[in-house]
């Protein structure tokens, strides 16, 4: 299991796009860019990566809840910025691998999915130890439809959670999965009324702070390195194939618009 190194200087986050709040020994980390459905702008990439590192290195933080500001959890890659910046945008993801960081946490981390959780946002969520969803949550993998190869763990983690059939169906067809279907296929562990989501996630995270921290971290490591060993191998395969490919940056924004229209039609909004 890969652990982040302790930063040499105090970690700073950007409070305009990433908020943190401590509820006892639980740190709530919120992506706060609702006007863009909490997509990964450069500021979000840097701020969220640093916030997760800081939580994992703080001995007073025994569990983390990750969520987004309504109405979305995270729409994933900011395709408008990616289309404008080209390869430089994806280099920032390599330098500050925010999507991968949830899966690297030693500290237990629970995802509280409050709305749309798409593509890179779904990869971010899949790195959490488990997910709790609002009744408003919807999930989709649109990597293929927008012309981007997944590189944040989609093909490694999604099959281990929902099974190979549903994983391929989501990735190939780009189908939007609502909260109740997500519960049935095992993508989330519980669906709660929207207004109860954060409190319920904090309740579960608080329960995870009760065992001795070193024991719980050891149990988590057993899951990751033991039964999760095939996932770790699949992550390496995904990364190698993704890095060997090329991206048509000029077409990203046009594809983004088509996918957004399709998703709206599927969820009836």
From TrEMBL:
Gene3D superfamilies tied to this protein: 2-enoyl-CoA Hydratase, Chain A, domain 1 (3.90.226.10)
Protein name stated in the entry: Enoyl-CoA hydratase
CDD domains documented for this protein: crotonase-like
UniProt cross-references to SUPFAM superfamilies, sorted A to Z: ClpP/crotonase
Record-stated family: Belongs to the enoyl-CoA hydratase/isomerase family.
One Pfam family cited in the UniProt record for this chain: ECH_1
Organism: Pseudonocardia xishanensis
Record InterPro entries: ClpP/crotonase-like_dom_sf, Enoyl-CoA_hydra/iso
């Amino acid at each position: 299991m890969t652990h982040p190194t302790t930063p040499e200087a105090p970690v700073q986050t950007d409070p305009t796009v990433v908020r943190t709040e401590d509820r006892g020994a639980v740190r709530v980390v919120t992506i706060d860019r609702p006007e863009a459905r909490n997509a990964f702008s450069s500021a979000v990439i840097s701020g969220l990566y640093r916030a997760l590192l800081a939580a994992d290195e703080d001995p007073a933080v025994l569990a983390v809840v990750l969520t987004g500001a309504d109405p979305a959890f995270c729409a994933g890659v900011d395709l408008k910025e990616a289309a404008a910046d080209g390869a430089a945008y994806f280099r920032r993801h390599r330098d500050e691998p925010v999507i991968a960081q949830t899966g690297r946490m030693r500290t237990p981390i629970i995802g509280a999915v409050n709305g749309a959780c798409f593509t890179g946002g779904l990869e971010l969520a899949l790195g959490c130890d488990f997910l709790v969803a609002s009744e408003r949550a919807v999930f989709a993998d649109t990597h293929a439809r927008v012309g981007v190869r997944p590189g944040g763990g989609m093909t490694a983690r999604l099959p281990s959670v929902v099974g190979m059939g549903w994983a391929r169906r989501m990735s190939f067809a780009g189908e939007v999965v609502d909260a109740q279907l997500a519960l049935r296929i095992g993508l989330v562990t519980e669906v709660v009324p929207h207004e109860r989501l954060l409190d319920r996630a904090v309740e579960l995270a608080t329960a995870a702070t009760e065992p001795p921290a070193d024991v719980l971290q050891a149990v988590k490591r057993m899951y990751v390195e033991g039964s999760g060993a095939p996932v770790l191998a699949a992550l390496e395969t995904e990364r190698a194939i993704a890095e060997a490919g090329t991206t048509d940056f000029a077409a990203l924004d046009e594809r983004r618009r088509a996918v957004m229209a399709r998703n709206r039609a599927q969820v009836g909004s």
